[in-house]
Amino acid sequence: MNKLSWNQITGGRGGLRYHRRRPPPGAMPGTLVVDADAPPPRLTVLAYGPDGYIEEKVSDLAQLDELCGEWPVVWLNVDSLSDEPLLRAIGDRLDLHRLVLEDVTNLGQRSKVEVYDDLLFIVLRVPELHEGDTAQVSLLLRQGLVVTLQQQPGVFFDGVRDRIRHSKGKIRVRGADYLAYALMDAAVDHYFPVLDAAGLALDSLEDQVFDAPTPETLAQIHSLKRNLVSLRKAIWPYREMLNGLMRDAGPVFADEVQPYLRDCYDHVVRLIDLVEAQRDVASDLLNMYLSMVSNRMNEVMKVLTIIATIFIPLSFIAGLYGMNFDPDASRWNMPELGWAMGYPAALLLMGFVGGGLLLFIRRRGWL
Fold first, then answer.
1. Is 75 helix (H, G, I), strand (E, B) or coil?
2. What does the alpha-carbon distance between residue 167 and residue 165 come to, in Å, rounded to a whole number?
3. Does the domain at residues 295-363 carry the CATH identifier 1.20.58.340?
4. 177: Cβ contacts below 8 Å, ≥ 6 apart
5. I need a labelling partner for 354 at 20 to 30 A (CA). Which of 180, 267, 340, 347 fits?
6. In the chain, where are the structural domains located?
């Protein structure tokens, strides 16, 4: 198996991060903070019904009134949130609460749903596999109209657009509530490739831990674990959001769409189970890495201790016979110093002592 790091899988960036942008502390409720450096917004409309569809760019929001009168479902998508007057114009046309627009531009929101009379405000967080981030998508749902506002152009909903263009499934014969479900389901399904990539990274790291763990392996495990925690933070609110939609969606979601919401809820539960399991595996890999490094260190220390133990008595013998006493000065001095076989005898004594210690250590199972 090729050893892939999470950074390689996600395009070289280390983690899933939210692009946070908030009003300053103490600002008036409803204050909009837009990114002036972002590209100009692009507005596209996809209107459809059982008999066909139209897709075009729009420059005037007044076109929405004409399209809503002609087509059963109208989907307005806004890429880039850099134009504050445009956002306020959308809010005025849809009669949005000022706090809704604030949440649209505050790009640190968790996934949630808020009910405003005949309108639903839904916040989605969608992962970007190659960027290593999560993007916020705001969704406004009203009878016959869906508005999506994205912080940057993305391909999150290309599959839904393709289904509308080619009349795949039931989407062209359903209402705007079914389109909102399809967009939520697409956002949820985008997490599966990211978790598949995380699974590949875990398999690769497991091989590295068993084969040749290095400090780089430890850094990759920490990075992956941190990314999984970020994924969990992004996925978990979907559960509460979908529970709220199934429990109290107001008059916007028809009863026929409820089974599809439950299916989307099941996908979220699977994602939560998967990310929890992968996070446990990452924690186990971290503990396994530390255990492997500790065991390897213990093995090294054991070998070095055995070598030192064997050489301690040999060093004593060599030191004793290296004191160079004169045997002629006293009969209590070393007589072996004048013996012709003294040197071979000392070597044999050292070999006997070292071999005996090695045999003793081996029989005790220490080696």
1. strand
2. 6
3. yes
4. 141, 252, 253, 254, 257
5. 340
6. 6-292, 295-363
